[in-house]
Amino acid sequence: MSQLEPDLKVPLGSLELKNPVIAASGTFGYGQEYAPLVDPNLLGGIVVKGLSLKPRPGNRPPRIVETPAGMLNAIGLANIGVEAFLKEKLPWLRTLDTAVMVNIYGHTLEEYGAVAAALKGAEGIAALEVNISCPNVDQGGMAFGTDPAVSAAVTEIVLRNTDKPVIVKLTPNVTDICAVARAVEHAGAHAVSLINTLTGMAIDIDTRRPRLGNISGGLSGPAIRPVALYLVYRVVRAVKIPVMGVGGIMDAGDALEFLIAGARAVQVGTASFVNPHATLDILEGIRKYCVEKGIVRIGDLIGTASA
Amino acid sequence: MQIKGLRFMTIVEHRAEILSNDEVAPDTFLMRLRSPEIATRAAPGQFVMVRVGHGRDPLLRRPFSICGSRNEGTLLLLYRVVGKGTRILAETGTGRHLSLMGPLGHGFRAPGKGQSGLLVAGGMGLAPLVFLAGLPGEGRCTLLTGYRTATEIISLERIGAKELEVSIATEDGSAGHKGLVTELLEDELAGTGGETVYTCGPMPMLRKVAALCLERGVDCQVSLESVMACGLGACQGCAVKAAPKEDRTYLHVCRDGPVFKASAIDWGAQ
Questions:
Q1: Residues B117 and B185 in one domain
Q2: pLDDT at B122 over 80
Q3: What's the angle, vertex CA B213, arms to CA B80 and CA B199, rounded to 5?
Q4: A2-300: which CATH number, 3.40.30.10, 3.40.50.1970, 3.40.50.1370, 3.20.20.70?
Q5: Closest residue, chain A, to B15 (C-alpha)
Q6: Among candidates A193, A195, A35, which has minimal Cα distance to B230?
Q7: Domain count of chain B?
Q8: pLDDT at position B138, please?
Q9: Active site includes A290?
Q10: Do A78 and B236 make contact, defined as CB atoms within 8 angstroms?
Q11: pLDDT digits over A10-61, tens only?
């Protein structure tokens, strides 16, 4: 019965997502890779793999290690570069009935600006998601996102060079994520997404060498979910802009925790590796939960966690 | 599913019933699964991503080369217990179901009629080569297999490939030729010529096979293994260094392979 069908639409700044389930950057390629198994048109959005100005080959292998209830990756932000993206990937993405968000990164402030500028005016891009977890070559390789002022500077240069809503993706590898969230909000970010991966490593005890070619990598998967949830809960209370929750979401129950904590939408990443239909299963589970609990609009659920 | 503007390889994810899961050599198992969806589409050299267990640990799917498919919709996987995932697989009994995703990747170009194939297998590398050799109506295949010792030898009869012509090498000389399987290959390559070499196994063996073939200008197709997360080309986790002549620095085992021309790989980096 149609009146029982919950309204899953969520506003995200000037955007409206048809539902709160989004495929996370780096885990869903450029959308096409999963298309034999997942109809992207059913999703609230997809965030495509992080783009840099020039193509980047990525780190030397091994790039992936499984860890308890998680995985470490050190892909090295391999990507085809913004020019090839516009020519080879965007024309197909543009035909989709979903919010296509483009993750971007740089190694200098100028590179962030240049990537945003290259995407300016491109049709079919709903928003930019800015990865501020990468090393700043002008500051000895320290990640941009660990310093509130530098995070704000990245946000500003991207905003100056784009006509699209800007979502800043926050790193959990900081002392006070709320300070970074407030800084990018103040700089004009339209939304934040969190968390990016937690930095970690693994060692092979037989060879006594790090298991990743890059030594360290980003931890993702259910192992990090409680950390992500708590940081989302705190950031939701620290800023007024919308928050997207990311980190170890495997099923609808996990996603609902983030929504109740106050996330306007959730991104699903590593779960897609385990269950290629994870995004759609989560969406269906959220829908069922709303029906069972008599929730008419998903907005009535968001941020309802009691103290 | 049809999505405007793209033609897809058909990739299926479904729960397949385990028809049998037998130890065919110490710690080595042949699993037969009911999977008409994948078995009818699979080509030798392609692989499936298998979810082991149902929990969060182990988390990732495991890639396995397809060891064979039968007309009635049975898929064969050959695996050795090497870690947590394969131990769980070995303990999963007949009648249980496993989530399979596949068929994935690019397989071998089989030898044409009148052509011959030299198949060089090390350990579990036997799996895709047995599938290749079992193709009906194709060229003649000779199988060279290498093991450390005789007790590891996998009976071809037990994995349904008894009609193959096979030579065995063991490192300790407990069966067949004493030494490496690559020494058997060197002898074969000194013969008539004109064949294609197909190989799968541990990296040191593959490196040697590739070197022998490249030196002699022999066509060589190599199936590589890698840790993988997605199996679909999305995560780019299974990178392998490409030969300098390639237009990319890295190739991806899941999508560009797992079967590559030996000349496409930078063997010095492996």
A1: yes
A2: yes
A3: 20
A4: 3.20.20.70
A5: A275
A6: A35
A7: 3
A8: 61
A9: no
A10: yes
A11: 999 899 999 999 999 999 999 999 999 999 999 999 999 999 999 999 999 9
CA distance B118 to chain A (A): 30
The encoded tokens of residue A125 equal 């891009």
CB distance A107 to A135 below 8 Å: yes
Burial tier of A3 (Cβ tally within 10 Å: 0-12, 13-18, 19+): exposed
Q: What pTM was estimated for this model as a whole?
A: 0.94
Q: Which of A134, A194, A290, A302 is catalytic?
A: A134
Instruction: Give DSSP secondary structure letters for B93-116.
Output: PTT-EEEEEEEESB------TT-E
Does residue A4 surpass a pLDDT of 80?
no
Q: What is the pLDDT of residues A192-202, one digit of tens each?
A: 999 999 999 99
Pair B179, B239 in one domain:
no
Q: What is the pLDDT of residues A49-72, one digit of tens each?
A: 999 999 999 999 999 999 999 999
> How wide is the angle at C-alpha A80 spanned by C-alphas A76 and A86, nearest 5°?
140
> Which of A49, A274, A277, A281 to mutate: most B Cβ within 10 Å?
A274
Give B154-168 pLDDT, tens digit per residue.
998 888 876 788 999
Give yes or no for a contact between B136 and B72, defined as CB atoms under 8 angstroms apart: no
Give the model confidence (pLDDT) of A222-266 as tens digits.
Answer: 999 999 999 999 999 999 999 999 999 999 999 999 999 999 999
**Residues on B contacting A at a C-beta cutoff of 8 Å:** 1, 3-6, 8-11, 13, 51, 56-61, 99, 101, 226-230, 232-241, 248-250, 255, 269
Residue A220: closest CA among A64, A56, A42: A64
Instruction: Give CA–CA dist B21/B35, Å, rounded.
Output: 15
| Chain A residue closest in CA terms to B242 | A57
